[in-house]
Amino acid sequence: MPVLSSVSKALTLLDAFSAGEPELTLTELGRRAGAHKSSAFRLLSTLEAHGFVEKAPGGRGYRLGWKLVELAGRLLSRYGLRELAAPFMEELAERSGEIVHLSVLEGAQIVYLDKRGRSQPLTVATTVGGRSPAHASAMGKVLLAGLAEAELERALGGRRLERFTPTTITDRRRLAGELEGIRRRGYATDDEETFPGIRCVAAPLLDGAGRVLAAISITAPTQRMDARRRSEIRKWVTDTAARIGERIRTGGINI
Asked: How many domains does the chain have?
């Protein structure tokens, strides 16, 4: 497949920004895109003209522009999933007192579509639009479990399964066994696999053909998710996922 280097470098510039680094200088952006300073300036000027980036206050760097928010809104409205799931997620967040996430799979990562619940101490910092490695999260494992064998191979490819904590699954055979168990159970757990001190329970959202479209989860610190409460949370999450799935099927939502 032919790839235009200028477009590729422009996309690399956009992808360089993160929640931790929302503003970057021309020099930093050029270095990360592997582009000469003058080339990076031309690319950024074009992106700026179309609203994809903007000058940061003070003019010393760049930050992402509002055009990306507009495009993200179009994508989410096309799916309709975020709006459909929102009241169920609010109810689940209120009932549990914890953070509730909605995500979809993109390659070997999950993308957070929505986040509900009041911020409180001892929780994980996630953002809508943010990403997380699928193999190391409950939602990611639910989404991977929904793939056919060929799709799973394409998603993970030959990449190494990165270790984030002592409990992260990094062995392919063990991950395959975990995914098989998730298919049987209908839910997944994450026992401090991405973040130390954080546990998670997730369940899939299914369409009329039984395909996994997305996943929802409850995330909480280990202090608030012992074995007894995890069992309670599992029931809440799986029940809510089933209710959202029913609305997906009757409402014709697809991804």
From this structure: 2
Instruction: Write the pLDDT tens digit of every residue in 11-65.
Output: 888 988 887 788 889 988 888 888 888 888 999 999 999 889 998 877 778 998 8
**Selection from 179, 75, 92, 82 nearest residue 134 by Cα:** 179
pLDDT in tens, 170-208: 888 898 899 999 999 999 989 888 888 888 999 999 887
Mean pLDDT of 101-118: 87
Name the packing angle between helices 37-49 and 26-33 (round to 10°). 100
Cβ neighbours, 10 Å, residue 182: 22
Strand partners, 212: 206
Same domain, 141 and 171: yes
Q: Which domain holds residue 197?
A: 71-251
pTM: 0.69
CA 175-179-182 angle, to 5 degrees, is 140
Query: Are 88 and 94 in contact, with CB atoms under 8 Å apart?
Result: no
Same domain, 88 and 184: yes
Instruction: Give the CATH number of the domain where residue 135 resides.
Output: 3.30.450.40
Alpha-carbon distance values, 150 to 70, 155, 171 (Å) = 34, 9, 18
- Assign residue 12 the CATH number of its domain: 1.10.10.10
Same domain as 158, residue 32: no
DSSP 97: S
pLDDT score of 75? 63
Site of tokens 């168990």: 181
